[in-house]
Specification:
The chain contains 14 helices and 20 strands. The chain has a nine-stranded mixed sheet with strand order 10-20-11-19-12-18-17-14-13.
């Protein structure tokens, strides 16, 4: 039997503290593709959709792909953008509702539109209103999802990434699709339960390179047998001020098997308790910009770069990407043979675009989005050494064979530091993002990059040392500096009286 499956990608990680809105134009700048165009572009990539297509092709499904929509993490998703993308999915669902056998959605789990706090739950509700509850829905999620009870009520199957840096997207898609296949064939009757912890996020942010969190994912995989078909640990996303914030454990099980629900609850409770027990054991050591430079000056150059991650200005967490406090310290110390970037400043790029390569430039760069987060504009005198369209093709574990762009970009050399200034804020996760500008990352003494964790997949192998910097930007780990209004209180670590007891 050939099944007909509706599919879509709709992903955004929303930092509710960031000014402005994420509009449809922001999705167009990243990924906004329809139907066959989306399938062609995404087929051979490390994405959940590609994993789903692996299974669909093997089982000869007819795929009704609506849309692939993804925008760089950032501010609240505008109602217009959300409705436009959702309507594309709903229209296809309505058109084929009499013949659809199943649904596959690649979602993030931390999307917050301007009109509600649960974008994924809102999308699923709209689909259920069209298709009813007889058709199984499989959802893949980012490891940093915030999963609401509404989401659990509206879809049977949930599978989340188990790596951070995220390298298992395609694997996750395959897993989700296999469970969807079993459901459509009526071999199982799946259900997902949820444990939700009163924490802003898992203490190590879901990192799978530290023992505590790695053990969670190892246990989750080991639990996936017999009546238990998927176990997911979601770290949550502390930059979202919503009542559903916090880490979750999801267990997808076959409710037709004896004692399966009790077993699922026991698994959820065990993993949630482990997250809670380790809540005061962070692995990251955060350095201020001054501490970073002091440490660098005390490290002999070994031939491999010192990688400095500007953690709190990571565009991948919705930060502006234009914080200057770390760059200012580097310039004051005149750190030779160094790289800094990407620094988001489209106006500076535009001003330099009319100049010839080799020109001497006096210009203010960075710090213009919200100077109280990570520092304001700094005045520099430098040499324009490269102009570029900002395009690159990844070759690392996360972004292999995927194309990306910083938009029009320049390299400005100031006091021995090559500064990548871009028109599109984006984190660093692939060496090709630097090599595309004729810069060899391995040749630098210091690589100061805007990223929190994803950089490790490509840069840890070449790093002599990794330093994590809290530059005071929008994604600072100091959560007490943000004014939360919508959280369910008490919540750790903001409230000392927070307690936890498991309930589904």
């Amino acid at each position: 039997m050939t099944f007909k499956v509706l599919s879509a990608e709709f992903s955004h990680e929303t930092n509710t503290f960031k000014k402005g809105l994420t509009n449809l134009s922001d999705f167009k700048k990243s990924i906004l593709l329809h139907g066959q165009n989306a399938l062609t572009a995404r087929r051979n990539t490390n994405t959940e959709l590609a994993g789903f297509l692996d299974i669909a092709q093997k089982e000869n499904w007819k795929v009704l792909h609506s849309i692939s929509a993804q925008a760089t993490p950032g501010s609240l998703v505008s109602k217009k953008a959300f409705d436009t993308i959702s309507n594309s999915i709903c229209e296809m669902a309505y058109k084929h509702k009499s013949s659809i056998d199943g649904v596959f959605f690649a979602l993030h789990g931390a999307m917050v539109p301007e009109f509600c706090e649960d974008g994924e739950g809102e999308l699923l509700q709209r689909i259920r209103d069209i298709l009813g509850f007889q058709i199984p829905i499989a959802v893949s999620l980012d490891l940093h999802a915030m999963v609401s009870s509404k989401m659990i009520d509206l879809a049977e199957i949930y599978v989340s990434f188990k790596t951070y840096p995220h390298i298992d997207m395609r694997i996750t898609g395959r897993h989700s699709a296999r469970l969807l296949s079993l459901s459509m064939k009526k071999k199982v009757s799946l259900k997902t339960i949820r444990a939700h912890l009163p924490m802003l996020e898992e203490i190590n942010g879901g990192r799978d390179d530290v023992p505590e969190t790695r053990n969670l994912y190892r246990q989750a995989k080991n639990y996936q047998k017999d009546s238990i078909f998927a176990v997911s640990v979601n770290a949550g996303f502390s930059e979202a001020d919503v009542s559903i914030a916090g880490p979750t454990v999801l267990v997808t099980f076959d409710k037709n098997m004896i004692n399966s629900e009790e077993k699922a609850k026991s698994i959820a409770e065990d993993l949630a308790n482990e997250i809670w027990t380790n809540r005061k054991n962070p692995r990251n050591k955060f350095y201020s910009p001054k501490e970073v430079l002091k440490t660098i000056n005390n490290i002999p150059f070994s031939g491999n770069p010192i990688v400095v991650a500007d953690y709190s200005d990571n565009p991948g967490s919705g930060a502006y990407g234009d914080a200057t406090s770390l760059l200012l310290e580097m310039l004051e110390e005149e750190i030779e043979s160094s790289f800094f970037g990407p620094l988001y400043d489209p106006n500076a790029v535009k001003l330099m675009s009319s100049l010839s390569v080799g020109s001497t430039v006096n210009i203010d760069i960075g710090g213009k989005s919200d100077p109280k987060f990570g520092g304001g504009p700094i005045s520099v005198n430098g040499k324009l050494i490269k102009k570029s369209n900002g395009r690159y093709v990844g070759d690392g574990p996360i972004f292999k064979n995927r194309s990306g762009s910083f938009g029009p970009s320049v390299i400005l050399k100031v006091k021995g530091i090559e500064i990548l200034i871009v028109s599109k804020a984006q984190q660093i996760w692939d060496q090709q993002q630097i090599k595309a500008f004729n810069i060899d990352p391995k040749s630098k003494k210091v690589l100061a990059i805007k990223s929190a964790q994803h950089f490790r997949a490509a840069f840890e192998p070449i790093a002599s040392r990794i330093l994590i910097c809290d530059s005071g930007a929008l994604a600072t780990p100091q959560t007490n500096l943000r004014t939360y209004k919508n959280l369910t209180r008490p919540i750790f670590p903001l409230d000392s009286n927070t307690e936890y007891s498991w309930s589904s």
